Amino acid sequence: MTAHRLLIGALCLLFALAPFVLPQPLITSLSYIGLSVLVGIGLVVLTGVARMTSFGQAAFCGLSAYTSALLTTLLGWPAIAALPFSLAMTGMVALILGLLTVRLAGHYLVLGTLVWAIGLFYVFGNTPGLGGFNGITGLPPISVLGFSITSPRDFYIVIWAVVGLGFLSAANLLDSRTGRAIRALPLETMAESFGVATSRLRIQVFLFAALLAGMTGWLQAHYIRVVNPSPFSVNASIDYLFMVVIGGTGQLGGALIGPMVFETVRTWLREIMPVLFGRTGSYEIIVFGILVIVILQNAGGGLMSLIARFLPAAPPVRAPRQAAPLPRRTLPARGKTLLSAENMSKNFGGLAAVQNVSFDLRAGEILALIGPNGAGKSTIFNLLTGVIPLAGGSIRFEGDRIDGLPPRAIARFGIARTFQHVVMQPRMSVLENVALGAHLRGTSGFAAATAHLERTEEASLLFEAQAQLGRVDLASSAELPAGHLALGQQRLLEIARALAADPQLILLDEPAAGLRFGEKQKLAALLRQLRAEGLSILLVEHDMDFVMNLVDRVIVVDFGQKIAEGTPAEIRADPRVIEAYLGGIDEEPVRATPAQEALP
Amino acid sequence: MNTTIGLLLLQDGLTSGFIYALLALSILLVFVVTRVLWVPAGDFLVFGALTLAFLQQGKVPGTVWLCGALGVTTAVAETWHAWRGNEWRDWRLVVSISLGTPLVIGGLIYLLAGSKPALAVQVLLTLALIVPMGFMLYRVAFRPLADKSILVLMFVAIAVHYALVGLGLVFFGSEGYRTPPFITGRIDAGFTRISWQLVLVVAISALFMLGLWFFMGRTLWGKALRATAFNRFGARLTGIRTETTGALAFSIAALIGASSGVLIGPMTTLFYDSGFLVSLKGFVGTVIAGMVSFPIAVLGAIMVGVVESFSSFYASAFKEAIVFALLIPFLLWRSAVEPRSHETHEHDE
Fold first, then answer.
1. Are A117 and A56 in contact (CB under 8 A)?
2. Does a structural domain hold residue A76?
3. CA A75 from chain center: how many Å?
């Protein structure tokens, strides 16, 4: 039993005992706070983790509340029977909004939800049959097995039980294969390179948050037993967002603390501020506005980041000692052509970045792509990994065309990559970062993750990640936050992450950049060992010593064209390569293409 | 509906459409230069309108105190930042503007308000008071966060909007205001009678659009703004101080906002919290333009005004919902044409 678990247990106990000891007005306030907490859980996952946000959470509450209100008052359904329909309705609208905006930059989702929230508010207020701005009255209470939940205490129990489930599902979700992918969402290119379908996952996260809001709306409707538009306005959505910003969007705890502090301060301000200004009105928004600005200007972690220092931290994710091994790909026979690029071309405006570059990569070899700065190496790398589309030519992998495919589809062929500038989630542990590499080797989905029904698979994934960390000699750092590693270790982490994908081919983008001499030697030894195990490696590199002593073959590019190909020894002796690197001695080489000369 | 009504509705729509277009310009300018979603654009419009309304009644507008409060806050915050970073380069200028504006312009308004000066003087005083508030807001709220993600900046923009609305309630009260028209009546154009208000709005909007176009295209400062919008890091490497361009963008946005407030004053009754909806209509225009193109943003916003005018005739209760539903086809279209750009390069922990 860790201190962290004890703390959570104690909190649960406190909330469970509260309705039996606290006076009724306090129980009622806590029930309302619980409703906000439920919305807040979704917002923490959406905003703090996935880095998207929504100004429509209150509108989702409203949609669910109105759906249930109509079904129960017009058709006489019991509240429980209306719940699935309310949630389905909320989910459907969230899905549509998500589909409309998910492919666009984040601020479109913001504006989309904002606009949807305002639109819905006016629809609620003006549609005949919805009771106008007075709303619908006479909703039945929630009743289960003949037992009606009407007293504040009973309702408190129901709300906080749901809140508890909400926390559990969110915590489970974040500690899973899907959760790692969600946490990598802000690093889209990296996530896609390991097979995460980011657009789909964004919609799922948005749905998750919307459904929590829908649940809140349904509970609220059958608690107050009246629905009207005002609690579902845009301002209410903004309040929810402010609650989680004040509480802290970085941790789930922020969803608990934020609403408690927000509601307490609001009640207090609503008592004193009208006295101060001699008029009634919602003056408290001045204070909350300024508070949010101050919090965001000071690291933005909210109250939770202040409190967390004094609380026991959650134990880091550990790999199991033993787990069922994941299935492995059979590697192709050594010497067989694995990757085959033909006449690859790419222009950026008038600049021909890559022109008619062709090469083959054979199974079990280390091939280096070198060239002076601006030669087009990175562009070739991005073309091979599907980050940018090819303008002409083709790329085949074991005979299948992979050009035109998105990075996540290319990853499925067993092609894994590293990044020139290390891309990792610094707040995730080293182990979890590496486990993200094995994303495609798991199959469990979003729903299974919220209930932790995928523990066997999860154990295998973590076991695999730990094993790969061992291969790059980082096993002892598995539990550290990845951001704590030195650059050399971060590069090794990237290689371990690529290895966790069980690749046939690894593409390394300047793996030796920024490494010290000893680190380079260790890296070279590791790559030799991988080659010995049958892996194929393509690396783009600047460091000549590193390349020439390591690789089997070298391709040299300059100004977007392949100028030489051969063994390191052949390349060293090639006059064109010497010229490209050192410049011509006798004559000014003609290097600019017509397209480049046309540039201003 | 007959042609006469149709033409009148069109005129109404164009009048408000041009005002939304002005806001769309300010929103887009602020967004491309600083990446801030300028939600308070409408609040500046409200400040402009209400300040002029107070002046026309011979009263001292609450904006004087608001400007004072903002000025003092900015001066204190700037001193704190300057002292902490030991960087006093801009301090004197910023503090002079922050304290000078409420003292000098606020003082002038305080002295002159009772004597109801000429309309032109009232308008000038209104602008002189409100424009520096855009500058101050940038310095106090956004500059310390200039490198953060769009998401964080957007939260701050919403928080600023919240605070401004609350302060608007404190300083203007909850009553609505409408200023008398600048020029009444209509001119006969043969097929319809065009209101002078429309002529005025179109003329002044056109002036702003041309001015902005000239400024951005022909002046060094304008080019610095464009460079910042194109690539912040690159702009910095060439010696452009992005905090200066940011402050400039906010000041221009405040000028546009306050001027549109002056223009919209006679058209509709404005309350302290009317700004949000107006901002959103400007935002619809900018989203239609993909948050990039100034001319398309203007056209989009004008379309919003026209659609709003016609839907208020046919289904007035749903006019807001209809206006905002306009976004849907454009979001679909942008989804189809725009490359994915979710990557957030943030280093904020």
1. yes
2. yes
3. 42
Question: When comparing pLDDT for B273 and B190, which is higher?
Answer: B273
Write down which residue in A184, A202, A232 finishes a domain. A232
A540 in the same domain as A454? no
Overall domain count for chain A: 3
The answer as to whether A296 is a domain residue is no
Mean pLDDT to the nearest integer, A321-344: 90
B342 CB near a chain A CB, below 8 Å? yes
Task: Give yes or no for a contact between A289 and B39, defined as CB atoms under 8 angstroms apart.
Answer: no
A426 touches chain B (CB under 8 A): yes
CA of A10 vs chain B CAs: smallest distance (Å): 29
Each residue of A102-123: pLDDT tens digit? 777 777 878 888 888 888 888 8
Interface of B with A in 9-68 (CB under 8 A): 37
pLDDT in tens, B253-307: 999 999 999 998 888 889 988 999 899 899 989 988 888 888 999 999 999 999 9
Tell whether A47 lies on the interface with B, counting CB pairs under 8 A.
yes
Domain boundary residue, one of A207, A232, A257: A232
- When mean pLDDT is compared across A276-290, A402-416, A578-592, the lowest value belongs to A578-592
| Whether residue A472 is found in the same domain as residue A525 | no
**DSSP character at residue B270:** B
Asked if A263 and A26 touch (Cβ cutoff 8 Å), the reply is: no
- pLDDT cut 90: percent of chain A above it: 58
A interface test, pick of B43, B278, B328, B342 with most A CB neighbours within 10 Å: B342
Query: A484-528: per-residue pLDDT in tens?
Result: 999 889 999 999 999 999 999 999 999 988 888 888 998 999 999
**pTM of the complete model:** 0.90
Domain carrying residue A431: 426-502
In a domain, A302, yes or no: no
Are A546 and A563 members of one domain? yes
Q: Which of A239, A282, A280, A283 is nearest to A262 (CA)?
A: A239
**φ, ψ at B201 (rounded to 5°):** -60, -45
Q: Are A73 and A139 in contact (CB under 8 A)?
A: yes
| Complex confidence, ipTM | 0.90
* Torsions phi, psi for A354 (to 5 deg): -140, 130
CA dihedral A398, A400, A403, A408 (to 10 degrees): -80
Q: Answer for the pair B178, B265: CB distance below 8 angstroms, yes or no.
A: yes
> What is the greatest pairwise CA distance in chain B?
69
CA distances B122 to A273, A453, B110, B111, B125, Å, are: 32, 69, 12, 12, 5
Taking only residues 177 to 206 of chain A, the set having a beta carbon closer than 8 angstroms to any beta carbon of chain B reads: 185-189, 198-199, 202
Quote the tokens at residue A308.
């967390």
pLDDT band, residue B339 (cuts 50/70/90): low
Residues of B in contact with A283 (CB under 8 A): 166, 169-170
Cβ contact A104–B348 (<8 Å): no
Q: Which residues on B lie below 8 Å from A185 (Cβ)?
A: 342
